[in-house]
What we know:
The chain starts with 5 loop residues before the first strand and ends with a helix. Strands 1, 2, 3, 4, 5, 6, 7, 8, 9, 10, 11, 12 and 13 form a 13-stranded mixed β-sheet that branches. By secondary structure, the chain is an alpha+beta fold. Helix 2 (166-175) crosses helix 4 and helix 5 (204-211) packs across helix 7. Strand 9 (99-102) and strand 10 (108-118) form a beta hairpin. Helix content is 32%, strand content 24%. The chain has 16 helices and 18 strands. The protein has helices at residues 91-95, 166-175, 180-189, 192-201, 204-211, 216-225, 228-237, 240-248, 252-261, 264-274, 281-284, 298-305, 338-342, 367-376, 397-404, 415-420, and strands spanning 6-8, 16-18, 24-34, 42-50, 54-59, 63-67, 70-73, 88-90, 99-102, 108-118, 124-133, 148-152, 156-157, 291-292, 317-321, 332-337, 381-385, 391-396. It folds into three domains: 1-161, no CATH class; 178-275, Alpha Horseshoe (MgtE N-terminal fold); 291-404, Roll (CBS-domain), CATH 3.10.580. This is MgtE intracellular region. Keywords: CBS domain. Residues 354-416 form the CBS domain. One of its GO terms (molecular function) is magnesium ion transmembrane transporter activity.
Amino acid sequence: MSATTRVFVARLAGTPVFDPIGDQVGRVRDVVVLVRAKGPPRAVGLVVEVPGRRRIFLPLTRVTSIDSGQVITTGLVNIRRFEKRAMESLVLGELLDRTVRFKDGSGEATIEDLSISRQRTGDWLVDQLFVRRRHGQRGIGLRRRGETLVVPVDAVTGLATSAEEQGAARLLEAYEDLRPADLADALHELGDVRRLEVAAALDDERLADVLGELPEDDQVAILSALDSDRAADVLEAMQPDDAADLLHELPDEQAARLLELMEPEEAEDVRRLLAYAEDTAGGLMTTEPVILGPETPIATALAHIRRQDLPPALASMVFVVRPPLETPTGRFLGVAHFQRLLREPPHAAIGSVLDDDTEWLTPEAPIGRVTRLLAAYDLLALPVLDSQKRLLGAVSVDDVLDHILPDDWREQHDDEQLEEVPRG
């Protein structure tokens, strides 16, 4: 998708949604936006109706293309039934037919459609409204009543959230551009009540990113304050290894209940990680690195690496295996390093540029061996294999740092050093 992609939402209604191999997943029924007191509303996902008339939430971060007549996804779809969260609005269900007032004082209008536009940051913002002036009102230069026109979203008022939501809304606006680690620091400094209010107002994926950066006590408090279904959704949005670490800190009964509420495939990955000791390769690894077959074109591999939700350490290499491609995979063949992929023809297969002599770990390998191998070979990630040489997951350097630093490292600040770091 280009950075200037613009879509009028009403035209999306009924549009088929396909996975990467061309199978239809469902049809678009609505678009979910966060309407803020300041700044344009942000579109966060689609409501998709799947077979059985079940409506699910598809984050826009998992949409790779919105073209004429179709929506293409990454193939990762959570089939939990959609439930609207606090501060979310449905465009077709709530915003269309809403009355807004022109800021220039020329009267009121009714929203008949609105457009969302993809920014260079990857965010989708509501940028234009297609409105019809209310009968009996006439703006300067208008020739007839009830005329339709397209206006910038900032030309009207009336889309903002309700007054009782403004406290959390204003804080979210102030924190909107912060990186997850910086937002976690800001949340940690808030009082207990306000911290929970702001955390609850974050969308699932943003909250999942932030939880991974918070001290364990804050993680447990926030997750425990959410209703069980929402907590399960947030755990699903987390990297499996981060979700497993968090569940380790919860009472066994609560952890078991949340695992039961998670989608079976997501829960299975987390359960496998919970079976390993926390200070072993199995306990440290993620089950979701970039895994592809040897026949995959290099251009496709690079597209997978560019995923916004992929941590930088895991974007440093592609793990190449025989089918199946889900962990535990077929036989592990080797890794394709990002820099090597950049130097090869896009149409070549990644199987032709494999490093098949890379070091690997067993799931029982202690953290000391993990750190020694990462340091010795200047790697950002290592594969974890079972006795049959099947890929179970990968351990990245950031996972290791989280475990070798002091337990309270997130709460320790060197003020002088922090002042020198730009907040760009």
